[in-house]
Amino acid sequence: MSELSNDTPRSPVTLRTLLNWFSGQFAGLGAAGVGVLCFSLTVPATRAAVPELGALLVGAGRSVIAGALAVLVLAVRREHLPARADLKSLALVALGVVFGFPLCSAIALRSVPAVHALVIIGLVPMATALLAVLRNGERPSPKFWLASSLGAASVFAFGFTQASLHVAVADGWMLAAVLSAAFGYSEGARLTPRLGGWRVISWALVLSLPLTSSLSLWAVRTQPLPAAFSWRAGLGFAYVGVVSMYLGFFAWYRGLTRTTIARASQVQLAQPVLGFLWCWLLLGERVTAQMLVTAGFVLVCAAWASRSRAPAAQIAQHPSARRAPRSEAAATVRIS
Asked: Is 0.90 topped by the overall pTM?
């Protein structure tokens, strides 16, 4: 065999190939980052609303607001009903992110400060990664587990020093909220490639409307609304209903499906750090040097984990690694 026969032709580096590489590297994590930015205000906004409006109304009523928006969007777009085969997955998504996380976190925030809750929220990325392994067959690298473990440990270390983390009933509710969020995220990411992220959360909210509306009405009957409540409580309730419960999921589910679920979920390690900032700005909580150090360390861990690679066989099997036909690619951009 000649020496020339061993030479492999190299494709030229063009602007299009560079843009495709950039899109493949950062599109998924960028979309997940937008979702995390939306979600980072959820705990402070819930904490602002719960003392005046009640945990049940805030927990269930936010889904009613988002469900009404979803009905409007689906009606304007004249969407067909979801297939019967997708109803089970939509129900599981609703169980996690429409009922589980909003209600459990609202109940916990009746008795603990927002910073305390944000410490436990730092477990969501690890829980999402574990569920990705169990349900979606992902196998993150050892470097991924090391980076995410260090990030979660730093959040807990901060909590013990700053927020006086203790074992209490409220902590149990927050842990239930963490598991609910992780379950809803992983199940929604499994369904998003077929329906598109905005359809997943829209149909999950619409299918839940009868129950969330009933819970909201019952909450108003058992605990009547005050004659006047603060603008901060009203704005917090509106935010969790419009952004946290609906618009944020558009970017979040898109990010989870543009890369592996385990990698994208690590971007959420930044959520407690951003939440601490919002607590300082909106709720008057004090920012300390330890908080700033923790913020920097968590962001480094999130970046390290996000750059970790899954095994080559797994990447080849992941939907985002396969090159779709041009018509399918256009459809994906359109619906997601």
From this structure: no
